[in-house]
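Record type: monomer structure entry
Structure origin: computed from sequence
Chain ID: A
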Amino acid sequence: MENLIAALEAMLAQIETLMSQLDIDAKIRRVSSLEALTEEADFWSNPDKAQVTMREISRLKAEIDHWQSVHQRLVDALELARLGDNSLLDELQPEVDALSALVERMSLQAMLSGEYDDQDAILSIHAGAGGTDSQDWAAMLERMYIRWAQENGYKIEQLERSEGEEAGIKSVMMVVRGDHAYGYLQSEAGVHRLVRLSPFDAARRRHTSFAKVELLPDIEGQIDIEINEKDLRIDTYRSSGAGGQNVQKNDTAVRLTHIPTGIVVAVQNERSQTQNRERAMQVLRVRLFEMERKKREAQLAAIKGENVNAEWGNQIRSYVLHPYHLVKDHRTGFEVGNTDAVLDGWLNGFMEAYLRAKISNGSLTPEAETELE
């Protein structure tokens, strides 16, 4: 029992230190001030701003509840252990083991200290060269991330999806909502390679397929970027996704092309063209903001003499289904032999290895092996 008490005391001290570092008390005060705003008579006079506020409240509450819940579980387990009743060992040991794994994961989460790590994420998947095989691979990645989100308590909102000609998808864009979604998913940005016996090849030959994953923080309402309407080409078309007959009968989907940069954003999940246009404009602002941020980082890296690797064309992870089974991340060296589990959404090991490498010594070395274009 003494060992259990010592372990619980150490975990409780660790959680309290992390809660202090994350300033959970300040976040509690922030929620109170935001909730006070919602009680004002004119709060909903600006619906867009109001929705941003409500989402911030929801995100902060989820984070606060998560940390407070684990803290309370540790306090309760420690109180039981201090009773000194050895008959409670069979009940306490599984709880201590579960708490140990949870505290380890939360210590990693606390290391997500980037400016936008606590934000929701806009995740896009694009099929690379390789025709039907690559489009099928893009759909497999889409399923993998949806399963990861479901298993870890995140919500998915699909913004746009383009079907493949024969199978799979050409591209998909979705928002992943939840605690530190962007922080965890940043490990996924880059080119993913699949090696397998092609189900679309009558001779069952081995094929290599590629798909690119892009990631942006969904920093809605926080970007001050002016976009000149003259720089935009706006196309409307009929949505192909869910939404009922209203979606099928009207040109509700919107595609924006930012002519100076060539950035294209398409959104089709809302029921009205106006809503889709507003959401597309927000995503465009995020992409322009991210482009400028990366440009500044590249300039700084050039001054420092560091190499800057473009994401497109970098193979960050390989999924080999033939002649053996292995998923390997080329930046961290982390690998898993159970490919089915990974494709079913078991990605936390890859994410945690990425965070550890990034936080400990920045030893992330993407291998620029294969061009997709």
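Annotation 1: The first strand starts at residue 121 and ends at 127.
Annotation 2: The first helix runs from residue 2 to 21.
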